[in-house]
């Protein structure tokens, strides 16, 4: 039965091949027909659900025929803010709720509604109900500029992963068209800005409205082994490469990017734990990252509840001391006694200015047999990365089959033309 479900999932994913790398454009207009929001983006979803008591995953994309729903609005002064609501399928919707502060606008909240009774996406779902997920996002830009991000940006929520890519959007538009000026996302600036691989701390600066010259990407951090010992032995065991990504305001009013790779041999680890919570403290040079893990007793799963960051920024920073925290997270989740493993890069959002990026992570909390990891629970990002080559391979095989059939048909007709009448 599990094999049949997997085959249906592969066929459904293959049917979505046409949406890969295909972006969709949407507009929101006010009552006079004036455009106030423009969005062009590609969105991929990965949703965990139950099918006959078994864990299943639905992988799908925001279709190009998604519609701008009537709930979308340009906002009205101080009473309401602009919102873009995209509807698709059988009751699914994705909402981008905008807000403004100082000289910037942002997607203050991302809301995803999905209908588990939609059999086309959620095969044999046993829930059959509407679910709502929300997340504070890190999408922000200067007023009067368009937000541009080619790189993938992952938003992780409970049971749901949403990946944005090739995004161009602008809210609070006054002239009805996209601005020629742009605010680039930090991920694009990291991938196109020169760094020095041999220097532990790598700092780059970039004016938001200009594009840097393409150069080499920064190296991934080395993987380190860290652990925490509690009253009953090892309570946190972690392998990971750790990178801190901070956007900061410089003294000249421009924005800079501080990228720090933790070097395992120069990183000190400590921490504490009890029966329901555990803390892993990692310190490198003048930077500290604290991971707070918690136990969900009802589901017997551990997860990352919070991250705290403190560091000293370069001398060009307007405020040299930087601190940030997020204590409402739900990442790196696995069953107690098992280990969470993810080879893909994961971006842990601390604030709109700070990301903690983990690479090749494997982690286990609370119930650990000696210093060995338990059974592995793979992350959804790895499952997605494995699925895409399968889809492409299946599509190419289908194309070859079509060409072969067409050739055989053509050859048969050619021979028939020479037969004696």
Overall SS class = mainly beta
CATH domain class name of the largest domain: Mainly Beta
Q: How many strand elements?
A: 27
Number of helices: 3
Report the portion of residues in β strands: over 45%
Count of the domains? 2
CATH fold-level assignment of the largest domain: Porin
Low-pLDDT segments, ≥5 res: 1-21, 191-217
Integer-rounded radius of gyration? 24 Å
Could you please describe the fold and organization of this structure?
With 421 residues, the protein is mainly beta. The protein has two domains: 1-184, Porin (Beta Barrel), CATH 2.40.160.110; 201-378, Porin (Beta Barrel), CATH 2.40.160. The chain is built from three helices and 27 strands. Strands 14, 15, 16, 17, 24, 25, 26 and 27 form an eight-stranded mixed beta sheet that branches. Strands 1, 2, 3, 10, 11, 12 and 13 form a seven-stranded mixed beta sheet that branches.
Summarize the structure.
The protein is mainly β and 421 residues long. Helices cover 14% and strands 48% of the residues. The strands form 4 sheets. Strands 14, 15, 16, 17, 24, 25, 26 and 27 form an 8-stranded mixed β-sheet that branches. Strands 1, 2, 3, 10, 11, 12 and 13 form a 7-stranded mixed β-sheet that branches. Strands 4, 5, 6, 7, 8 and 9 form a 6-stranded antiparallel β-sheet that branches.
């Amino acid at each position: 039965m599990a094999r049949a479900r997997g085959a249906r999932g592969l066929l459904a994913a293959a049917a979505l091949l046409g949406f890969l790398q295909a972006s969709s454009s949407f507009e929101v207009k006010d009552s006079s027909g004036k455009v106030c929001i423009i969005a062009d983006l590609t969105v991929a979803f990965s949703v965990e659900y139950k099918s006959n008591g078994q864990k299943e995953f639905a992988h799908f994309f925001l279709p190009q025929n998604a519609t701008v729903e009537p709930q979308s609005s340009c906002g009205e002064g101080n009473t309401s803010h602009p919102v873009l609501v995209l509807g698709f399928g059988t009751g699914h919707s994705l909402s981008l709720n905008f807000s403004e502060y100082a000289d910037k606008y942002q997607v203050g909240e991302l809301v995803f509604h999905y209908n588990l009774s939609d059999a086309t996406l959620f095969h044999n779902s046993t829930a059959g109900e509407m679910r709502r997920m929300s997340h504070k996002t890190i999408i922000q830009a200067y007023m009067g500029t368009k937000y541009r991000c080619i790189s993938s940006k992952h938003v992780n929520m409970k049971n749901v992963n949403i990946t944005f890519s090739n995004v161009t959007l602008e809210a609070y538009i006054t002239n009805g068209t996209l601005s020629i000026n742009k605010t680039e996302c930090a991920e694009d600036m990291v991938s196109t800005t020169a760094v020095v691989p041999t220097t532990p701390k790598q700092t780059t600066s970039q004016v938001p409205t200009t594009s840097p010259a393409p150069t080499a990407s920064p190296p991934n951090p080395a993987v380190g082994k860290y652990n925490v010992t509690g009253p009953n032995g090892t309570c946190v065991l972690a392998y990971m490469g750790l990178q801190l990504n901070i956007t900061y305001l410089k003294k000249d009013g421009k924005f800079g990017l501080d990228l720090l790779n933790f070097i395992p041999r120069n990183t000190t680890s400590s921490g504490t734990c009890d029966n329901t919570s555990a803390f892993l403290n990692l310190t490198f040079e003048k930077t500290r990252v604290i991971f707070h893990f918690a136990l969900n007793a009802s589901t017997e799963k551990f997860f990352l509840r919070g991250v705290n960051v403190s560091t000293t920024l370069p001398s060009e920073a307007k405020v040299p001391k930087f601190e940030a925290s997020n204590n409402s997270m739900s990442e790196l989740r696995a069953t107690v006694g098992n280990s969470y493993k993810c080879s893909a890069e994961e971006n842990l959002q601390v604030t709109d200015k700070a990301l903690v990026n983990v690479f090749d992570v494997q982690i286990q909390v609370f119930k650990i047999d000696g210093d060995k990891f338990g059974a592995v629970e793979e992350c959804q990002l790895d499952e997605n990365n494995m699925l895409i080559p399968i889809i492409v391979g299946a599509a190419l095989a289908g194309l070859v089959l079509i060409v072969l059939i067409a050739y055989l048909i053509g050859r048969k007709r050619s021979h028939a033309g020479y037969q004696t009448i």
